[in-house]
Design goal:
Elements: H1 2-16, E1 33-40, E2 60-65, E3 70-79, E4 86-95, H2 98-109, E5 113-114, E6 126-132, E7 135-141, E8 153-154, H3 156-170
Parallel strand pairs: 7-8
Antiparallel strand pairs: 1-2, 1-6, 2-3, 3-4, 5-8, 6-7
Helix pairs in contact: 2-3
Length: 172
């Protein structure tokens, strides 16, 4: 009897979960989201760091866990400029305050699925991995949407804004 009740409760809960959003015009940040990971995978036209640099300043990863409003990060901090610049890998994690979470909410809501077929060539590659339950779905940056139509894309400006907001919070 008890196992039957547990099964019924699990099926009811599963029926309430919408799953990953893939319809253009809809936000991927729903009540079902457990975690968001924004990755800057580098690329684009830019000056490369010196060969002896400790890290590359373009790639970065920001992971936001909804429960507890936890933010973790990995990025390369550049101090100074030119031949005296210092490249330092940074990583860490912290809980966001209620005010920080509230101010971040509109940026997360703006992560909208795009149906664009843009074919850009000069920007770093951004990806958003959305975790619902135990399942991940990777969304690309619609700046490069013409390259692979097998996955969903997010509005490029929204990804840029999210990267900026998460990066600013990580550097506080």
């Amino acid at each position: 009897m008890r196992s039957s009740l547990l099964l019924c409760a699990a099926l009811s809960l599963a029926a309430c979960t919408r799953g990953h959003v893939t319809a253009p015009g809809e936000s991927v940040f729903t009540a079902d989201v457990r975690k968001l990971t924004l990755e800057n995978r580098g690329g684009g036209f830019r000056q490369l760091p010196p060969p002896d640099a400790a890290c590359d300043p373009l790639p970065a990863t920001y992971t936001l866990t909804v429960a507890g409003h936890q933010l973790s990060w990995e990025y390369c901090q550049v101090t100074g400029s030119g031949s005296t610049a210092i490249y330092t890998p940074r990583s860490g994690a912290r809980a966001l305050g209620d005010d920080e979470w509230s101010s971040l909410a509109p940026t997360l809501a703006a992560l909208i699925v795009s149906d664009a077929t843009t074919c850009g060539v000069d920007k770093s590659v951004l990806a958003l991995i959305v975790t619902i339950g135990e399942a991940d779905l990777e969304y690309g940056d619609d700046f490069y949407a013409c390259r692979d139509r097998s996955k969903p894309y997010i509005l490029s400006d929204a990804l840029n804004s999210a990267q900026q907001a998460l990066g600013d919070l990580a550097r506080k």
